[in-house]
């Protein structure tokens, strides 16, 4: 199954692009399911829903997940070791999703689709890619707290 998620917002161009790809994918025996959030575009060729209490069951069932570049969904999917196509949503107020997707792609964790015209290629690439497992690196907050507990040091204010 290919599962597409846009999270709590909308990403009409991604949903429309997947809906256009759906007939060929379905004809090839693939199941396509779209989570469309608050999007205005309603798919005509693929099963879809707006929201669910949790997306975890869909992540678990999917062979490939296609998602916007939000940090929450990206890290949740990668923690599960799933194949992920991260798609830049250029409708957002800035290109912060590009920063995350570029970094995760450079580390080999996902396939970054920067152009929806190449979405089918990105999905095909994700199916065969040998992605690097994702492990979260500990943040500095833990180190600061431990240093304070053990040594009574407080970080210098800048």
Total helical elements: 6
As a percent range, the share of strand residues is 15-25%
Strand order, main sheet: write it out.
3-2-1-4-5-6
Stretches where pLDDT falls below 50 for ≥5 residues? none
Structural class by helix and strand composition: alpha/beta
State the helicity in percent bands.
40-55%
- Give the overall pLDDT as a whole number: 90
The largest β sheet comes out as: 6 strands, parallel
Distance between the termini: 50 Å
Counted beta strands: 6
Helix-strand sequence: EHEEHEHEHEHH
Radius of gyration: 18 Å
**Tertiary shape:** elongated
What tags apply to this protein structure?
single chain, 158 residues, alpha/beta, six-stranded parallel sheet, 6 strands, 15% strand, elongated
Structure description:
By secondary structure, this protein is an alpha/beta fold. The chain has six helices and six strands. It has a six-stranded parallel sheet, with helices on both faces. Strand 5, helix 4 and strand 6 form a beta-alpha-beta unit. The chain is elongated and about 65 Å long. The mean pLDDT is 90.
Q: How do you describe this structure in short?
A:
The protein has 6 helices and 6 strands, in the order βαββαβαβαβαα.
